[in-house]
Amino acid sequence: MNKTLRFMAVPTLALGALALSGAPAMAHDGADHYQSTLSQLNGSAGSGTITVDVTGNQAHVVLNVSGMPATFMDAPYPHVQHIHGGAQGVCPAPSADKDGDQVISTTEGAPSYGGIVTTLSTSGDTSPAAGLDLKVGGQGAAYTVDRTFELNAETRAALAAGTAVVVVHGLDPATLSAAGQAAKSDLAPTLPLAATSPALCGTLTAGQMKMPAGGADTGIAQETGTDTGALAIGGGLALVALAGGAYVVRRRSTAAAA
User: What's the whole-model pTM score?
Assistant: First the structure.
């Protein structure tokens, strides 16, 4: 992919330099910028992008996710996502599947991307302690998280070291192998493995500075999510009470219609 014939390289670089020479200069805006295009894991059909702009201890995060499983137990599928750090700073390779079920579980992926350092919630707490609070997770097939919050020292250190990795969880069971479909979650044995396994992953890398005023507006309104239930087990991922979450969703919908 992206291979270029050798004799085309010099003209291409020359044209790039010419284009840059005519572009307006971009002054540093005082922020550090990070970005990632999220890759699929475990047969996921989803896609996503994220930008993180850090000024001092404040971070503005815009995460766009689409193509994810839409429902779980007749309710919007609660997808949770985090910035992980403190490990290799990469997404897990197929060899991370140690038990041979053809699914990389959350714990199997942890040596690659590390533990949670920031919870990318739609509102409220963003600390690892918030873990997997589904009330503020992404909901359904497509959603956006767009918010500014205080970034903790662990996340700033992971970004600076190049080891910060974004992981979005929640798979369609139909995409898994027969063994994967039959397996239980490594974190919540009452749930299927698909419910807690990573679906998208991307390492945050230093990006270019923001364009000067007058560029394209990339802001997107925040998706607030649906009130379900969640439990964080240490720094790991555990989806719980999904059946109860489905009940809450239906009950609220009925109340709204009343």
Answer: 0.71
Measured CA to CA, the distance from residue 231 to residue 240 in angstroms comes to 6
**Domain range 29-209+219-257, CATH architecture:** Sandwich (2.60)
Quote the CA–CA distance of 205 and 32 in Å, as a whole number.
Answer: 10
Contact 239, 196 (CB under 8 A): yes
Domain ranges of the chain: 29-209+219-257
Residues with Cβ < 8 Å from 171, sequence gap 6 or more?
42, 43, 44, 69, 103, 194, 195, 197, 199
Q: Tell how far CA 133 is from the center of its chain.
A: 15
Phi, psi of 5 (to 5 degrees): -60, 140
- Regarding beta strands 58-66 and 47-55, do their DSSP bridges make them parallel or antiparallel, or are they unpaired? antiparallel
- Contact 85/115 with Cβ under 8 angstroms? yes
For the chain, which ranges sit under pLDDT 70? 1-29, 208-258
SS3 label, residue 186: coil
Closest-CA residue to 156 (of 204, 91, 102): 204
